[in-house]
Design brief:
Number of strands: 5
Largest sheet: 5 strands, mixed
Helix content: 40-55%
Number of domains: 1
CATH topology: Beta-carbonic Anhydrase, Chain A
Shape: globular
CATH class: Alpha Beta
Radius of gyration: 20 Å
CATH superfamily: Carbonic anhydrase
CATH architecture: 3-Layer(aba) Sandwich
Order of helices and strands: HHHHEHEHEHHHHEE
Length: 232
């Protein structure tokens, strides 16, 4: 009986240690955001994804973070990602409430509304990093490859089409959704196109990047492993 109680006590102590000892569980504050460089912000995302992939995501008290962020938010990064249900930003990067701005839209495209959101996040709210993250087997990219037309989705896919056209043929001559290798190559090109659109269409963000206030990066999320690979 004593052994059983000792065992339970050790579990309780271990659980407490997991929730209090990791600095990664701390809610972002204004001073912490201000002290974070663009390079450090990128490393935070990389480290978080490594934890997620290894099954070692940080234990957080989300209700406490709700309270701590109720009077202000100080995210260190902005992530533009796909609507896909397998690409939840806070999950794959192991982030807490108040850590990142998250703009999600099918095909991770950049339109005026997304640009305005990113300008607010960077210029007004102090975010230090913009990461455009696509993913493998992207349904929106497949639709653009196949020239799909469906209501308002048609206009969205039209924004992806330039990236599809700019992608060299890989995995054979088939440039449709049936060629998985081509789809993934087009998805990566679509990320690069979005990054270029941010720099070209937003003088505010272009100047901030030029002055080193922010960094703009791309990433590809492998939905079979959970790993995100970043690139410039």
């Amino acid at each position: 009986m004593k052994t059983q109680y000792l065992f339970l006590a050790l579990i309780a102590i271990a659980g407490t240690g997991c929730s209090t000892l990791s600095p990664n569980s701390a809610t972002m504050t204004q001073s912490a955001q201000k002290a974070t460089t663009p390079g450090q912000a990128l490393q935070k995302l990389k480290d978080g994804n490594a934890r997620f992939v290894s099954g070692r995501s940080v234990h957080r008290n989300y209700l406490a973070q709700v309270k701590e962020t109720s009077k202000g938010q100080y995210p260190y990064a902005s992530v533009v990602s796909c609507l896909d249900s397998r690409t939840g930003t806070e999950l794959i990067f192991d982030q807490g409430i108040g850590d990142v701005f998250n703009a999600r839209v099918a095909g991770n495209i950049v339109n005026p509304d997304i640009l305005g959101s990113l300008e607010f996040a960077s210029k007004v709210a102090g975010s230090k990093l913009i990461a455009v993250v696509g993913h493998t087997k992207c349904g929106a990219v497949k639709g653009a490859c196949d020239d799909v037309e469906l209501g308002n989705l048609t206009g969205l896919l039209d924004r992806i089409e330039p990236a599809v056209k700019a992608t060299p043929s890989v995995g054979g001559s088939d440039r449709s959704s049936k060629n998985a290798e081509f789809v993934d190559a087009a998805a990566k090109q679509n990320v690069r196109t979005a990054m270029a659109n941010i720099r070209r269409q937003s003088p505010i963000l272009r100047q901030m990047e030029k002055e080193g206030q922010i960094q703009i990066v791309g990433g590809m999320h492998d939905i079979t492993t959970g790993k995100v690979t970043f690139f410039n």
